[in-house]
Amino acid sequence: MARKQKFPHLLGSKWTAQQTTWGWRHFQVVNRRQEGDWVFAEMVASCDASVRFWLNAKQLKDCALWRAGWQPLTVLRS
User: Fold this and answer.
1) pLDDT band for position 77 (50/70/90)?
2) In a 10 Å sphere around its CB, with 0-12 CB exposed, 13-18 middle and 19+ buried, how is residue 15 labelled?
3) I need a surface site. Which of 8, 11, 33, 54 has the fewest CB within 10 A?
4) Helices (H), the chain
């Protein structure tokens, strides 16, 4: 029996950082990598494709760091 994949809908998902990250707030997951029990997501800034970084996908569940979807600034400030 195959093991259940962690974060199956990660690829292509859109995220808003609660704090400015590498000069941007809106990112999209373009790649995922699993290393043992760890899952990593490659994030790309929506307005600047040269801004790319990898992060532990568990961090995306932290509401203090990330929000699902692209949120307007008015939502982030409330």
Assistant:
1) low
2) buried
3) 8
4) 73-77
Here the tokens at position 29 are 């997951």
End-to-end CA distance of the chain: 45
Nearest to 64 by CA among 5, 16, 14, 12: 16
Beta partners for residue 14, in sequence order: 28
Alpha-carbon distance of 31 to 12, in angstroms, equals 8
Place of tokens 């029990």: 37
Q: What would the mean pLDDT of 31-40 be, rounded to a whole number?
A: 93
Which one, of 64, 71, 58, lies nearest residue 15 by Cα?
71
